[in-house]
Amino acid sequence: MPIIKSKYHKRPWYFINGHFETIIPSLFYEVEGIDYDRERLELDDGDFLDLDWINKDNTRLIILSHGLEGSSDRHYIKRPAEYFSRQGWDILAWNNRSCSGEMNRLPRFYHHGATEDIAAVIDHGLSHGYEEIVLIGYSMGGGMQQKYLGERAPDERIKGAISFSVPCNVQNSAEMLRKGASRIYEKRFVKRLKEKILTKAEVVDMDVSGIKDVKNFRQLDEQFTLKVHREYSSADDFYNKITSDQYLPNIKIPLLIVNAINDPMLGDKCYPIDLAENSDNIYLEMPEKGGHVGFTLPKSQWSYMEHAADWFISEVIFPQTSKQLH
Question: Which of 9, 47, 87, 266 has its CA 20 to 30 A from that of 259?
Answer without folding.
Answer: 87
